[in-house]
Target: APC family permease
Amino acid sequence: MSRSLFVRESSGLVKNVSALDSVMLNLGNMSAGIALFTSISPYIPPGGVIWIASLIGLLLTLPQAYIYIYLSGKIPKTGGDYIWLSRILHGSVGVTMAFALMIESTAYFALVAYFFSSAVSTVIGTIGTMDGIKSLVALSSSLTAPIPSYVLGAGIFGIIIAFNIFKAKWGYSLVTISTLISLVTTIIAMIVIAVNIPDFSTAIVPFLSKEGIMPPPNYSSSVPPPNLLVSLSGILPLLAIFTYPWMQASPAVASETKKVKYVQMGVILPLLVTGILITLGFALMYIAGGYTLTNYLFTNPSSAFIYTFWTVAMGLTTNQVLQWIIGIGLMTWEFAVLAYGVIVFSRYIFAMAFDRVFPEIFTRLNRFGSPVYTHLFDLGLTLAFLVLPVVSISGATALYGAIVIGMIYFFTVSIAGVLYGIRNKVLSLIIAGLFEAGYFVYLTYESITNPVFGFAESNGLPNPITLGFVIGSFVVGVIIYFIARRINLSKGIDLELLYKEIPPD
Model:
C-alpha cells in the first residue's frame, strides 16, 4: 500500500516532548492527588485499610504496564493504544473503542472542570474555618453554586485550550509545571502530617472541633476491626478502576516524544510514583490517627468528605502561607487532569483523522505545530457536557458510571497484547495480557454491579442515563467506522487495507 493513502506522508507533529514531559503527562493522568482527596476514602467499606489495597493494586497493574511498555517500544505512534488495537485486532475495533473512550473521557473532564470549584471551595473553606476568616467561608459556599461552577470550569478549560492552540509545547509545559507543583506540595503535605505524628491526637483536635466532626466518646465501638478481605473486595476496585490503569497518556503522544525510551519511562515511572504517593499518603493518615479514628472519620457520613489527606494537612498547621501552599497543591492536581486531557483527546482524534475515519481537517496544524481544529472540537464538546451539571447534577454525575468503558477498553488492549505476543512468540507478553484480561473482566463486573461506581443504582438496576451513554458511545463508534469505510471506498480507499499498515511518523 502506498503511504499516500493516509492523509499525508507525515503527521507534521514535532518531536519536542522530553522525558520529564512524558512522565508528568501520565502522572497527571493517574491523578494521585485526587485519589488522596475525596475519590477513595469516603467510599471505603467498614474494616477496609486503604494503604494495603493501594499496594496490592499497584502490584496487580504491573503486567499492564509491561504491555504498554512493550507495545510502545514496537509501535510508538500518535494515538498510542488506538493504533495497537486497530492494527493488531481490526480497524473497527480500534475506532469503536477509541471513540467510546474519548467520549467517556470528555464527559469526565467536563465533570472535573465543573467540580474544580469544589476543590477551590474546600481549600478556601478549610483555611477560612481554621483561621477564623468569615469572608473565605462565605466565598467557599458561593463557589459551589451551579453558575459559578460552570464559569470557573469553562474559564479554566478555555485557558488550557488557548495555550495548546497557541503553541503545542506550551500545552505540555502546562501539564509538566502543574504536575510538578502538585508533586512537591503533596510531599510537603506528607511532611506536615509526619511531623505531627507524635502528638497527632492533640494537634488534630482544633481541626475536628472547628469543622464540627469531633467523634463522640464511644465512637470506637462502631468501628469493626481491620479486614484484609474487605480491603481487597471493597477498596482495591476503587483504586484499580479510578487510578492505576490510566497509563495511556504518554503512549498517545509517542510520535512527539524525542526518544522511545522516554515514552516507556512515561509509563512505568508515573505508575510507581502514583503507587508510592497513594500508599504512603494514606499510610501516614493511619499511622498518625490510628486505624480506629481514621476509619471512623473516613466512613462516617458527617465527616467522610471533610476529613481528607489534604484538609488534615492544612488543618495541622497554623501557618497561613503553608496552608495556602498545600491548598494550591490540591487545586493544581485538578488542573493537571484537565491539562493532560486536552492533549490526549486531541491526539486520539488526530490519529483517527489521519486514518481517514474523521474529517481531514482534524489533522491540520497551525504554524505553531498545534492541531487547532481538534482542540476547538474538544472545547465545544466539553462546554456542551459542562451544561449538564447546571441542568441536572444527578444526571451529570451519572456519567461517572461510564468509567466501565475504560475497563472494557483496557480489556481489549490486553487481548491485543496476547495476540501480538502469539504472532511474535513473546511468551511474557502473552502471560501479561492473559492476566490483565482476566483482571479487567473482574473490574468490568465491579464497575457494572457496584453502586459506588455509578453504573448500577442501589436497587441493582443500571442507571438509565449511564446505560444509554455507554451503549450509545459504542454504537456511535461502530457507525462512524462503517460510514467512514463507505465514504473512503467511494474514493477508492479501502480502510480494511489501510489498517494493515502502520501510519508514517
About this structure: The chain has one domain: 3-75+105-388. The longest helix spans residues 260-299. Residues 3-75+105-388 form a domain with the Amino acid/polyamine transporter I fold (CATH 1.20.1740).
